[in-house]
Amino acid sequence: MKERGAFSMKKRVGRPLGSSSKNKAYSPEFKIDLIETFIKEKLGYREAARLLLPNLLESTARSNILRWERTYLEEGKEGFYCERRGRGRGNTSAKGRPRKLDKHIEEDLIAEVQSLRMENEYLKKLRALVLKRESEDRKRSK
Hints:
It is a single chain. By secondary structure, the protein is mainly α. The protein folds into two domains: 9-81; 101-142. The protein contains five helices and no strands. It is elongated, with a radius of gyration of 31 Å.
């Protein structure tokens, strides 16, 4: 078989970790070798898909290579060793019932909300009084 850089066909075939033919999981080392060859050989996505992942549909292989390249460029080799499946954490919008806060924190928040509401009412009344006084002053000056 034809050698292409350091990434030979022998290294490629039969490398997926999963036992089923669907949803193959590739090892981090395999992904790193593939992406380094892809970058070093300056292959296009279609050519890389055809040469480096011959057992997959071309569109699936291209999307895998694109995703792996992004991971490699953004996070380096270490990015392939962290688990990415499942629900994400962080900036995802929470669904379902919100978690309960500690009783102490909840009481502090309720007290702060009440205090802010009272302050808001005070400022509204103060503004109304100031506007009323200004309108009276304008009437007097005319």
